[in-house]
Design brief:
By secondary structure, this protein is α+β, with helices and mostly antiparallel strands. About 15% of the residues lie in helices and about 55% in strands. The longest helix has 28 residues. About 10% of the residues are buried.
Length: about 180
């Protein structure tokens, strides 16, 4: 019985110290800013398809089942987790972060863990209304402009990337068509 009391006392002491160490941080967190409304609309679980132009066969479109989990990493930053079914026994995962600075019309997009990358984009449109929200952003890559449009309405998320060549030709590179899961 004495051993159990000593163990209980040690456990209580450790738990109390842990709570005391974490509670001040929780109290400070209460004063963080609200999530940006354009980004808050995207938070949640989504399922649907990704359709993309195959790099190895440029005239071929491929459509894969896709799941997307979106959370807020900060008031103006999204954390994205994609999961794709790329054929029998082949699951593809992608971890990404998008830090938006709406005042400066800038976006920093960090992709991947195995092969991390970061790209800078210019926000060209950011609108929220009764029907949903839409953010458009782009970046120059070699001799083209990559344009993205992310649109969220309560139960659907659509995201497309179009490549615009210097010649004026526009090519839809990929498009997500997703439905909110669990609502």
């Amino acid at each position: 019985m004495q051993r159990r009391t000593a163990l209980t006392t040690a456990l209580t002491s450790t738990l109390t110290a842990t709570l005391a160490a974490t509670l001040p941080g929780v109290a400070r967190a209460l004063y963080d800013p609200r999530p940006h409304p354009l980004l808050a609309a995207a938070v949640g679980a989504w399922a649907g398809t990704l359709t993309y132009l195959d790099w190895s066969r440029p005239d071929t479109r491929v459509t894969l089942p896709c799941q997307l989990s979106v959370s807020l990493a900060a008031p103006q930053e999204l954390a994205l987790f994609f999961e794709f079914d790329d054929g029998p026994g082949k699951r593809v995962y992608s971890y990404e972060r998008m830090a938006f600075d709406f005042a400066a019309q800038a976006l920093v997009w960090s992709t991947g863990i195995a092969k991390p990358g970061t790209s800078q984009h210019r926000i060209t449109r950011a609108e929220a209304g009764g029907e949903g929200s839409q953010i458009a952003f782009e970046r120059a890559v070699d001799d083209r402009i990559d344009r993205h449009v992310l649109a969220v309405v309560p139960k659907t998320l659509a995201w497309s990337k179009t490549e615009h060549a210097a010649s004026g030709t526009a090519t839809l590179r990929n498009a997500y068509a997703l439905q909110r899961v669990g609502s």
